[in-house]
Amino acid sequence: MSKVSMTVNGRKMSGDCDDRTLLVNFIRENLNLTGTHVGCDTTQCGACVIHMDGRSVKSCTILAVQASGSELTTIEGLARDGELHPVQAAFHEHHGLQCGFCTPGMVMASVDMIRRHGGSLDEKTVRHELEGNICRCTGYHNIVKAVLSAAENMSAKQAAE
């Protein structure tokens, strides 16, 4: 057993876990943050995407002990003061979800994508960047629309500041 400490959604958290515990399982089982989903355990689906030290990662590929000392953001940490993050709002506005299982990973991957590309995103780039996130319901059309809309809105807001 190892003691793991990290900052999750702005709060210092710690717990004991087996050295073989995947980060996704630590987040869900030890921290009770169940928005991060386990879809495949093989890095194929992207349902487990979180941000670790500001970058999107598939939390099923990382051991919890490897994340000790890191700053994590899960889907639960995106909204601020009861207001959805612009990407979450765009997914809602553009119907970028159906069953919702893939949505947390899609949103987290999209936030990082927008952080890296800003307003210079196009449909081809969004589709390429989301290849590691599988949705079995929507066919991606509305997801891509949502990401492009959020990128545009976030760039306009940033320019206005």
What attributes characterize this protein structure?
39% helix; alpha+beta; 5 strands; DNA polymerase, domain 1; single chain; 5-stranded mixed beta sheet; Ubiquitin-like (UB roll); 161 residues
What does this structure look like?
Strands 2-1-5-3-4 form a 5-stranded mixed beta sheet, sandwiched between helices. With 161 residues, the chain is of the alpha+beta class. It has helices at residues 23-30, 64-67, 86-93, 103-117, 123-129, 141-160, and strands at 2-8, 11-17, 49-52, 55-58, 71-73. The chain has 6 helices and 5 strands, in the order ββαββαβαααα. It folds into 2 domains: 2-76, Roll (Ubiquitin-like (UB roll)); 86-160, Orthogonal Bundle (DNA polymerase, domain 1).
Taking Cα atoms only, what radius of gyration do you get, to the nearest Å?
16 Å
Question: Which architecture of the largest domain does the CATH hierarchy give at level 2?
Answer: Roll
Can you write the helix and strand succession as a string?
A: EEHEEHEHHHH
Number of strands: 5
For the largest beta-sheet, the strand count, sense and barrel status come to: 5 strands, mixed
- CATH class wording of the largest domain: Alpha Beta
Strand content: 15-25%
Assign the structural class, choosing from mainly alpha, mainly beta, alpha/beta, alpha+beta, or little secondary structure. alpha+beta
Please state the average pLDDT score: 94
Number of helices: 6
- Indicate how many domains the architecture comprises: 2
Low-pLDDT runs: none
In the CATH hierarchy, what is the superfamily of the largest domain? Answer: Beta-grasp domain
N→C terminal distance: 47 Å
Named CATH topology of the largest domain: Ubiquitin-like (UB roll)
Main-sheet strand order equals 2-1-5-3-4
Shape: globular
